[in-house]
Design brief:
heterodimer; A: mainly beta; four-stranded antiparallel β-sheet; 0% helix; globular; B: mainly beta
Chain lengths: 125, 109
């Protein structure tokens, strides 16, 4: 069973860059999953940040695209998030998750974000 | 941009009662691309339903999903104590690629 674990600084200075890593265990990052980042501000709902495939293909939320870079490191079986020019509005619990998508003859079958990390709290001060 | 609106914001019910949660989309969502998650305090979301009506692995059959087009429903047939939580709907495919509703909290009456 795949498990995900986020790591990174819990405190980031305003205008700085937030950097988080998600370690994948119990499976390969080269499997057919889109590796994703989702965040949740205190007391609020969920916001998708972006996703990456092991090939390096990425999709980003347009509202964050100018500040986000998601990368994958196959040698370490992990993927990472960098969010630049952070403000207090970026304070949130950051989750990594795997999105299970199967493409058959061009049709996408989305089976959900089926594995999640426990989340890590990042505060921007 | 697609917007998912969940109602009610809070549902106050007793164990054993039936819960009906609504998710309305601002534009048509393919049934294959509407999902439901459960989140308990301090925990990550947990996938319940994919493709509008298919239960994820290990999800009890008291959870069911239905709907099409712009109107979708999550039903919990008889609430167990562990079902009191926040529930989110999610769509896949429209911009942004993934969108969540704002959530419905099911609380103990």
């Amino acid at each position: 069973q795949v498990q995900l674990q986020e790591s990174g600084p819990g405190l980031v200075k305003a205008s700085g860059t937030l950097s988080l890593t998600c370690a994948v265990s119990g499976g390969s990052i080269s499997s057919s999953k889109w590796w994703s980042w989702v965040r949740q501000p205190p007391g609020k709902g969920l916001e998708w940040i972006g996703s990456i495939y092991h090939s390096g293909s990425t999709n980003y939320n347009p509202s964050l695209k100018s500040r986000v870079i998601i990368s994958v490191d196959k040698s370490k079986n992990q993927f990472s998030l960098r969010l630049s020019s952070v403000t207090a509005a970026d304070t949130a619990v950051y989750y990594c998750a795997s999105a299970h998508i199967v493409v058959v003859t061009g049709h996408h079958y989305f089976y959900g974000m089926d594995v999640w990390g426990q989340g890590t709290t990042v505060t921007v001060s | 941009e697609i917007v998912l609106t969940q109602s009610p914001g809070t549902l106050s019910l007793s164990p054993g009662e039936r819960a009906t949660l609504s998710c309305r989309a601002s534009q048509t969502v393919g049934s294959s691309y509407l999902l439901w998650y459960q989140q308990k305090p301090g925990q990550a979301p947990r996938l319940l339903i994919y493709a509008a009506s298919s239960r994820a692995t290990g999800i009890p059959d008291r959870f069911s999903g239905s709907g099409s087009g712009t109107d979708f429903t999550l039903t919990i047939s008889s609430l167990e104590p562990e079902d009191f939580a926040v529930y989110y709907c999610q769509q896949y495919g429209s911009s942004p690629l993934y969108t969540f509703g704002q959530g419905t909290k099911v609380e103990i009456k």
